[in-house]
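Q&A log
Question type: sequence-to-structure
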Amino acid sequence: MEDTYRTIDNNIGEGYYTEKRSKFLAFAHHIESADEAMEIVKQYRKKYYDARHCCYAYMVGPERNEFRANDDGEPSSTAGKPILGQINSNELTDILIVVIRYYGGVNLGTGGLIVAYRTAAADAISHCKIEDRIVEEKIEYKFTYPMMNSVMHVIKSMPAKIVAQHFDNNCSITISIRKSMAEELLSRLSKIY
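Response status: OK
Response body:
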């Protein structure tokens, strides 16, 4: 079972491309949600209000099944799709790439636009630190106070982190563990009596 994914660190990767006086400024951000991506896009639209286009693509989640590409007025599939293509070819997720275009007065044609957006996005990615991260699962476990030592022994014997805990007559603990090991942890905890 695959429980790792590739993303970029929290530093913004910047890329640049110019063709026939058109300038393409690219920015790659680490994101956690689609809402966060849209908030960042909104900020770029405000900051670069005088630019002709603010195109973007993002991918969210370790399964890489939540994504969006936007051409922002460029001919269909000439901007967002090539940006998303760079995200896919690098197998990245939890990433947003925004490409700002300042129009230089000369039309680039669909082929030229695709090359420009793809190259700007690739340049932004090349200025990012790519990281492999682990998919973790949170498990909440309830037990009685006399079971405390046994529960703690099981947790300490595995690469698990305690996220939250409540101890009383009835105790509960929330544990974060690598997804591929969650089954084993639950199995070990269920054997405590």
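Response note: The two ends are 30 Å apart (CA to CA).
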